[in-house]
């Protein structure tokens, strides 16, 4: 049995596969716990990256409001 790669499962998760390959992958996932587990890891990685992005955006917004940072942005 051929297993799907992380990249393929990421494309599956994001709907970036052609329909026939997507149907084949869905059938494979029903029978293959290895690929199901890898798909779950891909989902968790995406969730972690989203949290990091959100925290960075919040940090930047707060950092931009600190007076010394505002002054540094105006002098550069």
Explained architecture:
The protein is an all-alpha fold. It has 4 helices and no strands. The protein has one domain. Helix content is about 85%, strand content about 0%. It is elongated. The mean pLDDT is about 90.
List the helices and strands and how they pair.
Layout: H1 6-14, H2 19-31, H3 33-65, H4 67-75
Helix pairs in contact: 1-3, 2-3
Structural key phrases:
mainly alpha, 0% strand, 76 residues, single chain
What's this, in brief?
The protein is mainly alpha-helical and 76 residues long. The protein is built from 4 helices and no strands.
Report the radius of gyration as a whole number of Å. 20 Å
Order of helices and strands: HHHH
Can you count the beta strands? 0
Uncertain residue segments? none
